[in-house]
């Protein structure tokens, strides 16, 4: 079966793709949904002076806010209806997953299967509305108190502006959450990740043009620009290698006799990815780092001294920011790995079907062995994620290059691209299997 699957995968071509009608419908739906998202990033909030807003972001957009503007595809700097992107939904998902591991009621819901999952998703949506409301109000207050060299950002500040801003931002966030779910169900999957991916990719040409312009003006040397481009290629290759890397644990199945025939006795393997958590830890960490900036927005830069000190301490490139960012990435790498892979359940399933790891007793000992291996893999995976994500901070502080070259952005782009290609291959493989089954049935009828 495996060799047949590999043979079919090797024979993918445009002819097979043209016959995969269902896959083409999914791709067109995904493309249409992403176009709708990109159009929404240019619909501005009502009551905003774009000239004053652009003046403020040109002076302050290089910090932490600039990173989140990258995730939103420029929607934050343009202050559009999608200013918060899907970050409130990601924050709500983090909180719900943490609560699922702590609150017994939610833990029981998780074990109920599809019904429990739907209830948890509903709670996640409610929490998303709450977080988007708080963050939207913080943005509204921050905009009202912001003044540029050409005047105030808000044309008519007051309660009406605040309420319309909150409603518009919350509505935009909920629409993107729904759009991501539709891409997952009716598109090629990974809806939320694809929305973030589209925002990053949309700004890559501008970042490349900005870097080349820095070289034209002499701010960056030609050798440095060439070195940066080579480094980007090296980072992409490194990410692909680490995302593909896995530890294969040999699993042996004993022979058993049924009548006069012997069955079993073959060996298989249990693949454990080096980075089980994928791009979730950097996205989760970035989402949580947005919260202090949101609360700082309540003061519009005119709050108490301690708030100003905390905001400065958590500024991009500062030791406090790097320490918290790396700590959150490591924490979520271990946490999400524990969520998606349970060594005890895997060991019980192996024992149920007669499988065992050579040299390890089935049951508890197997679970402990799997946990030991997975912990070591996660240490390496978390170190890899941390190193890739702090790379742009070094580049920015040392050479003032755009944030897009390296780090979280490249990690998300490469990982989501690999996952999407995998989804497309899976659909094409299923289509080819369906074709083979239909042909075999026709031959059977003729025979």
Q: Would you mind describing this structure in some detail?
A:
This protein has 17 helices and six strands. The protein is mainly α and 447 residues long. A hairpin with a 2-residue loop joins strand 1 (147-148) and strand 2. It has a single domain (15-446), classed as Preprotein translocase SecY subunit (Orthogonal Bundle), CATH 1.10.3370. Helices cover 72% and strands 6% of the residues. Residues 1-12 have low confidence and may be disordered. The chain starts with a helix and ends with a helix. The strands form three sheets. It has a two-stranded antiparallel sheet with strand order 1-2. A two-stranded antiparallel sheet has the order 3-6. The chain has helices spanning 2-10, 14-19, 21-40, 50-60, 64-71, 87-102, 104-111, 114-144, 159-186, 191-217, 222-244, 280-297, 305-313, 319-340, 343-352, 364-399, 407-446, and strands at 147-148, 151-152, 246-252, 255-258, 261-264, 267-273. It is globular, with a radius of gyration of 25 Å.
Looking at the structure, the CATH topology is Preprotein translocase SecY subunit
How helical, in percent, are the residues? over 70%
What's the CATH first level? Mainly Alpha
Span between termini? 25 Å
Order of helices and strands: HHHHHHHHEEHHHEEEEHHHHHH
Write out the strand line-up for the largest beta sheet, numbering strands in chain order.
1-2
Total count of domains:
1
Number of strands: 6
For the biggest sheet, the summary is:
2 strands, antiparallel
Secondary-structure content class: mainly alpha
Q: Count of DSSP helices?
A: 17
């Amino acid at each position: 079966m495996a060799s047949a699957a590999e043979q079919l995968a090797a024979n993918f071509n445009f002819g097979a793709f043209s016959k995969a009608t269902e896959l083409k419908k999914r791709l067109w739906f995904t493309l249409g949904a992403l176009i709708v998202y990109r159009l929404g990033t240019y619909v501005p909030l009502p009551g905003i002076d774009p000239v004053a807003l652009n003046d403020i972001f040109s002076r302050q957009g290089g910090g932490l806010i600039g990173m989140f503007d990258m995730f939103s595809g420029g929607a934050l700097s343009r202050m559009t209806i999608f200013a918060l992107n899907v970050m409130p939904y990601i924050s709500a998902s983090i909180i719900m997953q943490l609560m699922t591991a702590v609150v017994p009621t939610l833990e029981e819901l998780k074990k109920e299967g599809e019904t429990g999952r739907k209830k948890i998703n509903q709670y996640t949506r409610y929490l998303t509305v709450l977080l988007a409301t708080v963050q939207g109000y913080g943005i509204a207050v921050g905009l009202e108190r912001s003044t540029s060299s050409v005047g105030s950002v808000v044309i008519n500040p007051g309660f009406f502006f605040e309420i319309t801003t909150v409603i518009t931002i919350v509505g935009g966030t909920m629409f993107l959450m729904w759009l991501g779910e539709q891409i997952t169900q009716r598109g090629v999957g990974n809806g939320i990740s694809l929305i973030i991916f589209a925002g990053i990719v949309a700004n890559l040409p501008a970042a490349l043009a900005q870097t080349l312009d820095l070289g034209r003006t002499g701010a960056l040397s030609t050798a440095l620009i060439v070195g940066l481009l080579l480094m980007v290629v090296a980072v992409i290759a490194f990410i692909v290698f680490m995302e593909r890397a896995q530890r294969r644990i040999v699993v042996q199945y004993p022979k058993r006799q049924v009548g006069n025939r012997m069955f079993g006795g073959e060996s298989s393997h249990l693949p454990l990815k080096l980075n089980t958590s994928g791009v979730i830890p950097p996205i989760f960490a970035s989402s949580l780092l947005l919260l202090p900036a949101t609360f700082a927005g309540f003061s519009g830069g005119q709050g108490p001294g301690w708030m100003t000190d905390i905001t400065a301490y958590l500024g991009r490139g500062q030791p406090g920011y790097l320490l918290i960012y790396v700590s959150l990435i490591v924490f979520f790498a271990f946490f999400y790995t524990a969520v998606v892979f349970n060594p005890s359940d895997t060991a019980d399933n192996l024992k149920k079907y007669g499988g065992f790891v050579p040299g390890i007793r089935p049951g508890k000992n197997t679970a402990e062995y799997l946990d030991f291996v997975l912990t070591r893999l996660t240490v390496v995976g978390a170190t890899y994620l941390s190193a890739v994500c702090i790379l742009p901070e070094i580049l920015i502080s040392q050479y003032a290059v755009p944030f897009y070259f390296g780090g979280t952005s490249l990690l998300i782009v490469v990982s989501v691209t690999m996952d999407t290609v995998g989804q497309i291959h899976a659909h094409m493989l299923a289509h080819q299997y369906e074709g083979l089954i239909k042909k075999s049935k026709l031959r059977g009828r003729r025979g």
